[in-house]
Amino acid sequence: MIKTLISIGLWGLLGWACGAWIDPAAGWPIFAFGLILMILVSGQQIARIAKWVKDISRPPPPAVGPWDDILAPIYRQLRKNSAQIEQLNRHVDGIMLAAEALPDGAITLNEEMQVTWCNQTATEHTGLNLQTDRNFSILNILRAPEFALYARQNSWPAPVLLHLSQSGHDKSLLVQLTPYGVGQFLIVTRDVTQIEKMETTRKDFVANVSHELRTPLTVLTGFLETLHDMPQASISDEQRSHYQTLMLDQAQRMQAIVNDLLTLSTLESSPTVEGEPVRVSALIHNALKQVEMLSHDQHIFVQNIAEDLGIVGIESELASAISNLLTNALRYTPKDGTITVSWYTTETGQACYSVQDTGIGIASQDIPRLTERFYRVDRGRSRATGGTGLGLAITKHVAMRHGAELSIHSRLGAGSLFTLHFPAARVVTIKEDRNQAPPVVVAAPLVGATKP
Fold it and tell me: What is the mean pLDDT of residues 190-200?
């Protein structure tokens, strides 16, 4: 404004000077010309400003006269606001990325309980599709009666547990509804399927342990009470010896259960180590000697063992797994049955330890549960032969710690085939010790096996 007044004053002064010097009437046209020129220049400046206003992200036009003092602070404020908006956008993007990375699901709702946003985890938990389910009521998406009752409460101090089924898979979700902002709600979902399974397994395990120990304890207590209450003369030495033998059997049974439980606990809690090269053939021959003694020449044992084939692992754990599979085969194979033990490599370079028997076999519905703790196909037979119900569970853990897989193939009444498949990365070749006489090997090829 001041610049404009100064310009008008200067043109007026110029007109007065020209009028005083030339003719008084000549000053007015000069003054009018100056005003018209100022109007034209001002119009051009305004046109440049109008063009800039269409894209204010660019710097304002320079030399626009009195508008310079106005546009400069406006542009500085615009740049400051733009920087703040960009920073806020980065923060928002970071928050959204963090929300997407959350292990828990997050769903935002408006005041009408309609979905406005969700992260990828919530999509996996609930099957919600943001593109098609946005602005739809969450009650029409989570169609669990428990959730409907929960969502209609006035407050939600605790989460609700939902059991959902998606694509044939059962899922347990812990859902917490929380108000935030003005008329907005947040749903947090957590998948507790594995936690529930572990809790169920823990309860079953405690119940099974109690049951397995209760039976021998009851027998042991009964015999002790009998010996304690009855007069010594009323029991013959033969009866006393029989009772003592039975008590010893039950005590040994409890000791076997405790030892197997300790083995399982050690396998689960101790860190996995690479180990060292192990001559597996020696472990197999040692296990065979023990099983043959228990067999009392009532079974036929066939061997197909690669003497120089070894793997990198823990010898004590491998010995336990090898012995468990052999012992199981012996327990469930009747007299004159055949047990075939093989240790060989496959075409893919894997090392396989397999035990095949001609025993009673296993029903197909029982095979998936064989490695569960204390699970028995025939409880009476297993207890009668001294089984604890933990052998295959131990074998499975040993296999997992060595990167191996345990496969089970069986038909009821047609025998069983248990195989440990060790990865090729663990396979090594061990030279035979010349100072030790090699055991006798009788070749008996197994289906799917490659002869060493």
Answer: 83
**Collapsing DSSP states into helix, strand and coil, what is residue 127?**
coil
Q: Tell me the C-alpha to C-alpha distance, in Å, between residue 115 and each of 139, 143, 145, 439.
A: 10, 14, 19, 72
Strands 115-118 and 105-109: antiparallel
Average pLDDT, the chain: 79
Cα–Cα distance, 276 to 282 (Å, whole number) = 15
| Residue 350: burial class (beta carbons within 10 Å; 0-12, 13-18, 19+) | buried
Calculate mean pLDDT across residues 215-233.
77
Q: What is the pTM of this model?
A: 0.51
Angle at alpha carbon of residue 380, lines to 374 and 384, rounded to 5°: 95
**CA dihedral sign of residues 359, 365, 366, 367:** positive
Instruction: Please report the pLDDT score of residue 432 as a whole number.
Output: 63
Please, what are the domains in the chain?
2-85 (no CATH), 102-191 (3.30.450.20), 196-269 (1.10.287.130), 276-429 (3.30.565.10)
* pLDDT above 80 (res 378): no
Q: Do 225 and 205 form a contact (C-beta atoms < 8 A)? A: no
Using left for φ > 0, alpha for ψ between -120 and 50, and beta otherwise, residue 386 falls in: left
Please write the tens of the pLDDT for every residue from 6-46.
766 776 676 677 766 766 666 677 667 767 776 777 777 77
Instruction: Tell me the β-bridge partners of 345.
Output: 351
Determine the Cα–Cα distance for residues 438 and 282; give it in Å rounded to an integer: 9
Closest residue by Cα to residue 29 from 16, 41, 42: 16
Sign of CA dihedral 76, 82, 85, 89: negative
Residues 6+ apart with CB under 8 A from 194: none
Listed as own residue / partner, the contacts of 219-225 with beta carbons closer than 8 Å and 24 or more positions apart are: 219/246, 219/247, 219/250, 220/247, 220/250, 220/251, 220/254, 223/247
Residue with tokens 């599709």: 129
Q: How far is residue 307 CA from its own chain's centroid?
A: 39
Cα–Cα distance between 87 and 19 in angstroms, integer?
62
Strand partners, 309: 429
Angstrom CA distances, 170 to 42, 82, 104, 165, 353, stand at 76, 49, 18, 4, 35
Q: Flag the least confident range among 54-68, 96-110, 344-358, 435-449.
A: 435-449
Q: Pick the residue with more confidence: 151 or 58?
A: 151
Each residue's pLDDT tens digit, 243-263: 788 888 778 777 777 777 777
Question: CA 343 to CA 441: how far, in whole Å?
Answer: 12
